[in-house]
Amino acid sequence: MSADIGLIGLSVMGSNLVMNMNDHGFTVCAFNRTVSKVDDFLANEAKGTKVIGAQSIEDLMGKLKKPRRVVMLVKAGQAVDDFIEKILPFTEEGDIIIDGGNSLFTDSIRRTHYLEGKKRLFVGAGVSGGEEGARNGPSIMPGGSEDAWPHIKEIMQSISAKAGANEPCCQWVGGTGAGHYVKMVHNGIEYGDMQLICEAYHLMKDLLGMSCDEMSAACTEWNKTELDSYLIEISAEILKFKDTDGTPLVEKIRDTAGQKGTGKWTGIESLEQGMPVTLIGEAVFARCLSALKSQRELAATLLGNGGVKPLKVNAEEKAAFVDSIRQALLASKIVSYAQGFMLLAEAAKVNSWKLNFGEI
What we know:
Blueprint (H helix, E strand, L loop, with lengths): L4 E4 L3 H12 L4 E4 L4 H8 L8 E2 L3 H6 L6 E4 L5 H10 L8 E4 L5 H13 L3 E8 L1 H7 L2 E6 L4 H11 L2 E2 L3 E2 L5 E2 L2 H30 L4 H11 L7 H11 L21 H12 L4 H13 L2 H11 L11 H37 L9
Parallel strand pairs: 1-2, 1-4, 2-3, 4-5, 5-6, 7-10
Antiparallel strand pairs: 6-7, 8-9
């Protein structure tokens, strides 16, 4: 049996993408470095589907229709290069290797040139939406060898999220590392959005003395305005979520944030290009600051809360203040998006990419 596409890496993202492709009528051949994972996957999540398994890279590549299309969902860095070298002996001219991980864009530029030099095609595709997106429809940002696009367009647009009138959240972004560059900036903007929501929370909680339920109600209202977004929607849900003892769970969560690196890369790249992406930079530093938990706790014992006292306001003034926070949040988001697009425009010039900003 020949498969439409192969996928390497059955982590949560990989296995969910396989199931998404299967739902849309594509036959997928799945492979994992730990081969027992393939058997487990076929016996459980993929039971009763058209998904087929492979016991080796050679087996995988032998089961694919031509031109062969294979997606890697493996850890960024050396693992991607290692798999490319393992795949190459079983490819021929025009075959397509797709990296769906969170790779650094410079790696994608290098890999595009390397594979095109061997008459193979490379696509670096940013995939956004986490495990739920992978299963039900992610946003996909493919870039690299443009000749690959006609061969992968139908699959990628079918499995992507849809906006408006069934418009796929997936279009060809541009050459070499453009796909992963756009994904990097997208993640940086998301870092900024999350930090802005944190600051709105801080103002509502510490200046207006609002309860978690009140803040949840405010977010629910905001989500009916221009701020309508996934992050505001889940903020409303998180704020109202109660622990088993009936108190807000969010107040018990340790206030330290980790990071996977894409926000930091955006900050570094903004310095390289001389573009003032200040909002994302501050959001990255806020995460770094949050990690300094013991120093912050010591500072709090010495300095208190910096003299922040709740404002004495009546109901009308409070409602007006909450709406001012909403407007400040919207204005800040616009600034962040504008800065992100300034960086994309500069990178497009430097890397000779033809970016379609409307589509992005």
